[in-house]
Amino acid sequence: MRYEQHCPIALAAEVVGEPWTLLIIRELLNGSTAITDIAAGVPDMSTGLLTKRLRKLEATGLVVLRPRRAELTEAGRKLADVIEPLGRWGARHLPPPRHGDLDPALVLRDIAREIDRDLLPPDAVSIHFRFTESPGPRWWWLVLSRSVVAATVHDPKLPQSMRIECTVGTLTRVWLGHADWLDALRDRAIIITGPRSSVRQAITWLGTSRFARDDSTDSDTPILSL
Questions:
Q1: Tens digit of pLDDT for each residue in 196-223?
Q2: Fold topology of 8-93
Q3: How far, in Å, CA of 144 to CA of 194, rounded?
Q4: What is the overall mean pLDDT for the chain?
Q5: pTM (two decimals)
Q6: Do 142 and 151 meet the contact criterion of CB atoms below 8 Å apart?
Q7: 50: closest CA among 29, 30, 34, 73?
Q8: If both were cysteines, with which of 98, 100, 157, 207 could 221 make a disulfide (CB 3.0 to 4.6 Å apart)?
Q9: Helix (H), strand (E) at residue 224
Q10: Which fold does the domain 99-206 belong to in CATH?
């Protein structure tokens, strides 16, 4: 879309304001470079449209396309200065996600990306999620290790540190800061089954999205008193 204005905001919006483009850039900024990984972050986007958007980003100097891969240029990486504040604004000032926006794969993917691997135990473990209401598979696992953090619907056959039961909506609201871990646990909207020490660790590991954190206060996640 062309606005036919000299305004830099209008010119930038012509490039990044089209549907899906900011989400593609979000995936690239989060470290996805394989086209298949980018596509996994925008599952409702057709392959043809993804290709079209990537080619436009390449034509405007924001992306370099390689066989089955895409990488941000220096100008593309600078968009983090725009997208990070936009994400914080969206999490803090817009209503919680609607039911139709909920997706267990996407929220667990986001959580996995932000886990601090230095806090994880040296040997790989898993967290088993049982979603009592979900638009997709209800059983998921987070594989946690210092080398790999990933969500899967297949039992990884690793030592299970705990089981978490909740709805996808509850987990999403807590992750985005619309609800509090402690309140959800006390109300039994989230039920964690496992050793006492592992429950404390889970809240520390999972925490909340960086977009939900208030920079004016201590961003450390409170530890559950058990």
A1: 787 788 789 999 998 886 644 444 443 3
A2: Arc Repressor Mutant, subunit A (1.10.10)
A3: 16
A4: 89
A5: 0.82
A6: yes
A7: 34
A8: 207
A9: none
A10: Nonspecific Lipid-transfer Protein; Chain A (3.30.1050)
